[in-house]
Amino acid sequence: GDAIGLGVAAEYLMALGMDSVREHERDLVTYALDLLPREVPGIEVYGPLDPDLRGGVIPFNLPGIHPHDVAQVLDRSGIAVRAGHHCTMPLHERLDLAATARASFNVYSTREDVDALATGLKEVQRVFNG
Q1: How many folded domains does the chain comprise?
Q2: Domain range spanning residue 31?
Q3: Are 72 and 127 in contact (CB under 8 A)?
Q4: Is residue 3 part of a domain?
Q5: Are 32 and 117 in contact (CB under 8 A)?
Q6: pLDDT digit string (tens) for 105-115?
Q7: Where are the alpha helices (DSSP H) in the chain?
């Protein structure tokens, strides 16, 4: 089962072409890096701002709101982000961060998903900050 699924997924990606996959990912990250700071007051985005220097993930924090709380409230709206150290504890320690939330984009993600994330993050702020 799992091996067959992995094979089908690999065939799908090869049919799309990895350059096409990377370009789609880059477009979404570029869009998100522009939209989120404009739409979500105070959001702290970590990592290079140049999408060519990053993959399809955007780690972030909302000041005063724990990343696990961010993830839980977003989950209520069907938006999945991860919260924690993301296997990068030394980096989190170096940046003096207890944890971060992380949005990940892939071939199935759309600009509408980025819009929904921004809307969801504003709702998180409303819930915790009034």
Answers
A1: 1
A2: 17-129
A3: no
A4: no
A5: yes
A6: 999 999 999 99
A7: 2-16, 18-39, 67-76, 89-94, 111-129
Structure tokens at 106: 């892939």
What does the alpha-carbon distance between residue 116 and residue 122 come to, in Å, rounded to a whole number?
10
Crossing angle of the two packed helices 18-39 and 111-129, in degrees rounded to 10: 30
Q: What is the mean pLDDT of residues 16-33?
A: 92
The continuous run of DSSP H or E covering 104 comes out as: strand 100-104
The CA distances from residue 74 to 9, 47, 80, in Å, are 27, 22, 7
Neighbours of 120 (CB within 10 A): 20
* 113 within some domain: yes
Contact 105, 36 (CB under 8 A): no
Q: Given the residues 64, 78, 87, 96, select the one marked as catalytic.
A: 87
Q: How confident is the model at residue 65 (pLDDT cuts 50, 70, 90)?
A: very high
CATH number, domain of 80, equals 3.90.1150.10
Active site residue 44: no
